[in-house]
């Protein structure tokens, strides 16, 4: 039933777009959740997507883009970039500043500049500022929609400002007001509830909370995450090197950025090198994101296979070894992948640094030895009962134990080594680990078998 409802939503949007029924389309899309909007647009072709965003008011189109961006950022940027520049500018004028900067940064420079020229001057100015900062810093993630007041005004003046600008502030995520002194330097924070319980003639300098905790404009995602872990704030002021207030970073934006980073890391580990991929993207775009990984793996697998080719005679005499080489390499690879995942996560969270390689090895080697021995014993028993040859069990179990130790050690240390070399651990660790575990697994099985060949035949 739910799938039928999803299909009806998509079809209805397409029908309303074809009939250019702007008001009806606007009203219908407002009844849908962000997930429903994302699902419906993912089923539509690009022409229908663009027409839908062209016939509804810019504010409603901006809401749709924010819903799409929440679900799949890359496609949202492609859709906005494909709109006529004037329409794209009108929509982005209504998008929240941090999302606005993210979308513009993902477009080709010429498209970005054309859209910026057509945006409202104040919106374009803020967007240019945010784009100038790296995306994983406070400057790149902050919003410029916030309440700021001079410390010399009164509570009554703040309340009057609320009344005059109610429509503007309705789109703000208002939890705090920020108080500045000479040169726009941050001097305090005003909680919104404070103005309800204070004398309206009181000056903000006497009401505000002084020496607030701040985030600096160049702080990285890891540092901002630690900040919000320590403090229960909904948002925090961002200041430059001179203590001037330049924006506000929201807790929700930091959490969202962490989720996006984890999602991109997962895709890279799965072989999608270009980052986010959706089936609504162009064929060549999707193909190229996968081919880079697959081409690399051809050569890595040839290296691993060369070990088998050099020991064909042994395999021809003990055919069962072919089965166990596959089991040993696969099981060891799984053990190594666990170590890779832990190291990448700790690097991402800032819990370890590349220089702490020996600390990581000291933690991983005991696990590799313990799990390797236990798994080796299990596989050795299976091999014995299968073929009735205890020496085959020794070869298979010993190879798995040895290769598991190598795999866990390499899996734990590779991300740190690659990080120190300025390479992406999430992208490079897995193919290297797979090649090493395959080569070592084949080597251990075949060399152990060569030593005991007279007892196996």
Blueprint of the fold:
Blueprint: H1 2-18, H2 22-30, H3 34-43, H4 46-55, H5 58-71, H6 73-82, H7 85-92, H8 97-105, H9 109-118, H10 121-131, H11 138-141, E1 147-150, H12 155-164, H13 166-169, E2 176-180, E3 186-191, H14 204-207, E4 209-210, E5 215-216, H15 221-230, E6 235-239, E7 245-250, H16 251-269, H17 283-309, H18 312-317, H19 320-349, H20 357-387, H21 390-420, H22 425-451, H23 453-456
Description of the structure:
The protein has helices at residues 2-18, 22-30, 34-43, 46-55, 58-71, 73-82, 85-92, 97-105, 109-118, 121-131, 138-141, 155-164, 166-169, 204-207, 221-230, 251-269, 283-309, 312-317, 320-349, 357-387, 390-420, 425-451, 453-456, and strands at 147-150, 176-180, 186-191, 209-210, 215-216, 235-239, 245-250. With 457 residues, it is α/β, with parallel strands linked by helices. It folds into 3 domains: 2-132, MgtE N-terminal fold, CATH 1.25.60.10; 147-259, CBS-domain; 283-456, Orthogonal Bundle (Tetracycline Repressor, domain 2), CATH 1.10.357.20. It has a 4-stranded mixed beta sheet. It is elongated, with a radius of gyration of 29 Å.
């Amino acid at each position: 039933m739910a799938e039928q409802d999803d299909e009806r939503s998509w079809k209805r949007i397409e029908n309303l777009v074809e009939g250019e029924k702007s008001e009806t389309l606007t009203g219908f899309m407002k009844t849908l959740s962000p997930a429903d909007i994302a699902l419906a647009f993912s089923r539509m072709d690009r022409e229908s997507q663009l027409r839908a965003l062209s016939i509804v008011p810019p504010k409603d189109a901006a809401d749709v883009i924010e819903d799409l961006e929440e679900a799949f950022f890359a496609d949202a940027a492609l859709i906005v970039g494909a709109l006529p520049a004037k329409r794209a500018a009108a929509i982005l004028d209504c998008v929240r500043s941090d999302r606005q900067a993210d979308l513009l940064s993902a477009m080709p420079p010429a498209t970005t500049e054309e859209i910026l020229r057509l945006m409202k001057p104040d919106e374009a100015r803020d967007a240019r500022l945010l784009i100038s900062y790296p995306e994983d810093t406070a400057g790149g993630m902050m919003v410029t929609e916030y309440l700021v007041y001079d410390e010399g005004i009164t509570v009554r003046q703040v309340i009057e400002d609320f009344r005059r600008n109610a429509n503007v502030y309705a789109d703000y995520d208002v939890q705090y007001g920020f108080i500045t002194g000479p040169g726009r330097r941050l001097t305090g924070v005003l909680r919104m509830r404070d103005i309800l319980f204070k004398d309206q003639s009181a000056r903000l300098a006497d009401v505000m909370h002084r020496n607030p905790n701040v985030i600096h404009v160049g702080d990285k995602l890891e540092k901002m995450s630690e900040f919000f872990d320590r403090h229960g704030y909904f948002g925090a002021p961002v200041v430059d090197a001179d203590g001037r207030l330049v924006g506000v970073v929201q807790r929700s934006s930091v959490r969202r950025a962490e989720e996006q980073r984890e999602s991109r890391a997962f895709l890279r580990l799965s072989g999608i090198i270009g980052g986010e991929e959706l089936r609504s993207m162009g064929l060549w775009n999707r193909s190229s994101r996968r081919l880079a990984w697959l081409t690399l793996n051809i050569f890595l697998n040839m290296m691993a296979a060369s070990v088998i080719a050099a020991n064909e005679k042994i395999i021809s005499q003990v055919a069962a070894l072919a089965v166990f080489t596959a089991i040993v390499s696969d099981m060891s690879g799984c053990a190594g992948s666990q170590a890779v995942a832990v190291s990448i996560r700790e690097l991402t969270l800032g819990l370890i640094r590349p220089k702490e390689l020996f600390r990581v090895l000291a933690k991983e080697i005991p696990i590799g030895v313990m799990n390797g021995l236990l798994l080796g014993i299990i596989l050795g028993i299976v091999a014995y009962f299968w073929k009735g040859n205890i020496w085959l069990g020794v070869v298979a179990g010993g190879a798995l134990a040895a290769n598991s130790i190598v795999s866990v050690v390499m899996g734990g240390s590779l991300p740190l080594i690659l990080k120190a070399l300025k390479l992406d651990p999430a992208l490079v660790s897995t193919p290297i680990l797979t090649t090493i575990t395959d080569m070592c697994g084949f080597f251990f099985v075949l060399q152990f078998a060569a030593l005991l060949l007279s007892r196996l035949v």
